[in-house]
Design goal:
This protein is of the alpha+beta class. It is 42% helix and 13% strand. Among the domains are: 165 residues, no CATH class; 154 residues, no CATH class. The strands form 4 sheets. Strands 2, 6, 7, 8, 9 and 10 form a 6-stranded antiparallel beta sheet that branches. The protein has a two-stranded antiparallel ribbon with strand order 1-3. Strands 4-5 form a two-stranded antiparallel sheet. Bound molecules: adenosine monophosphate and magnesium ion.
């Protein structure tokens, strides 16, 4: 019986500046909580027939698969605007698994023990937050948004000390890589140009091979990363996702969503929505996500300056011109994304106003972001949509819809591709986690099934569609737990 691991560990072959060679710290009594069979299959891995005890040994890091060469990666980051040297303080990268299509995936254990980057932390993670990452990352994937994935969660059989004593856990995270803006910041901070060149070449090889032979690789890399991260944040805005901690160490160069700490989905539309307990000034509020993406890209650009041009002024000008264009690219993409949400074909000079009028109405009337678009797709209704201002707006929308020789059928088809019917509602996620903490995985499994098909009008899902009761308004999320 073979699982099918095929490791090839290119990152671990980089020089020692990039990482620490380290193994997961064995845990006392691991127990498998959840395994993502579908993802395993996509990775050409087969865990069927392997007993639960053995699986727990594998996914806790007590027994490492053959071919791994585990490391903790070094990186830095601007956390809430302040630069810090960081690194994997509670994670190890086992290596890169290669699937049958020769695609390369990082396999990482999160919560696997202390490393030289732990900075006083215990290197561990708690069950609730690891299951939360599992649920939300899988939901984001099902929403067709690039993301790291979750392969398994095990309980360690050990307690972790937070405000209370909690069950320890380890999450197996799968990513196209864990190279972050912060990885570049770390290497740039060492001022070793050779290492910086190595990182640029490595990243291009792995994520952007189309610019391998380009004349200005660093500038082209900046441009492509900008495009991917811009597209990512557009997707977040489309589904009402608030990442919550867009520090530069949590921005993947691949353009995948990474680091599911304090993230959450917005119910009532309010651009100022913040869930994270530590985000006192709303730096990472819903509507701040695009400008923060740009800010983070500017930090990325700073790292690349020495490679963009020998003349620093020229390099700065080239990078600045590029980054300054973020706003235009974003607004264009945003407008098109919102047109798709409203099923509008073609372009009309009044589209922006039409869209903003709807958003303003939602904000003023505390309408649910997801459910308002569902209402426009004739899925569900609510008293709130009998409001006169809304009816007037809807008439304008209908008129605009008819202006482009499109059919209602085509319009609904476009809308259904872009508007989720279910999202991970905060209270449903919390409910599932509470059950799981008490050893009952039933609710999580049901929730995952529903979230797996967010664009389908599934049977009996009304309880997953309701926003949290207003008593949940002060819902708070937490980092690094
Ligand atoms: P995060 O808030 O998850 O992005 O983590 C920021 C930094 O803190 C990263 O370098 C993490 O590795 C580190 N970190 C978070 N929690 C722990 C922990 N319990 N022990 C050690 N390091 C941690
Ligand atoms: Mg992080």
């Amino acid at each position: 019986m073979t699982i099918g691991w095929r490791f090839d560990n290119s990152y671990s072959k980089l020089s020692k500046t990039f990482k620490e060679d380290i193994k997961p710290t064995p845990v006392h009594e691991p127990e498998l909580v959840i395994l993502n069979e579908e993802l395993a299959k996509n990775l050409n891995l087969n865990f069927l027939g392997i007993d639960k005890k053995k699986l727990a040994e594998i996914f806790s890091g007590n027994s490492l698969p053959d071919g791994t060469n585990s490391i903790a990666q070094a990186y830095a980051g601007h956390q809430f605007g302040h630069f810090t040297m960081l690194g994997d303080g509670r994670a190890v990268l086992l290596g890169e698994h290669i699937d049958n299509k020769n695609q390369r995936f990082d396999i990482q254990y999160k919560g696997s023990g202390r490393t030289s980057f732990s900075r006083g932390g215990d290197g561990r993670a708690a069950l609730g937050p690891m299951l939360r990452e599992y649920i939300i990352s899988e939901a984001i994937n099902a929403l067709n948004i690039p993301t790291t994935r979750s392969l398994a969660v095990v309980k360690t059989g050990e307690k972790v000390v937070r405000e209370n004593l909690l069950n320890g856990a380890i999450l197996t995270r799968v990513a196209s890589s864990h190279i972050r803006v912060g990885t570049f910041q770390y290497i740039a901070a060492t001022q070793n140009l050779e290492d910086l060149n190595t990182l640029v070449d490595y990243t291009i090889d792995r994520h952007y091979p189309e610019i391998k032979t380009s004349k200005n690789k660093a500038l082209d890399l900046l441009s492509l990363v900008m495009e991917r991260q811009c597209q990512l944040v557009i997707n977040w805005m489309r589904v009402g996702f608030i990442h919550g901690v867009m520090n530069t160490d949590n921005m993947a160069i691949s353009g995948e969503t990474i680091d599911y700490g304090p993230c959450a989905f917005m119910d009532q539309y309010d651009p100022k929505t913040v869930f994270s307990s530590i985000d006192k000034f709303g730096r990472y509020a819903f509507s701040n996500q695009p400008p923060i993406t740009k800010w983070n890209l500017a930090r990325f650009a700073e790292c690349l300056i020495p490679l963009i041009d020998k003349n620093e002024d020229t390099a700065i000008k080239l990078a600045t011109d590029l980054i300054d264009n973020f706003q235009n690219i974003y607004e264009d993409k945003w407008l098109n994304m919102m047109r798709d949400k409203l099923g509008l074909f073609g372009k009309d000079k009044n589209d922006k106003k039409l869209i903003n009028d709807l958003l303003n109405w939602m904000e003023k009337n505390k309408a649910d972001y997801t459910n308002t678009f569902c209402h426009l797709m004739d899925i569900n209704s609510d008293e709130i949509y009998k409001n006169n201002d809304f009816i007037n707006w809807k008439n304008g929308w209908k008129k605009r819809s008819e202006s482009n020789n499109s059919t209602k059928e085509k319009q609904i088809k476009l809308m259904k591709k872009n508007n989720p019917i279910v999202i991970p509602r905060n209270h449903k996620v919390e409910e599932a986690l509470t059950f799981a903490e008490n050893g009952n995985l039933q609710k999580i499994k049901q929730l995952l099934l529903v979230l797996n098909k967010p664009y389908e009008n599934q049977e009996n899902i009304s309880k997953y569609q309701l926003p949290a009761p207003l008593s949940n308004k002060e819902y708070q999320t937490f980092c690094g737990t």
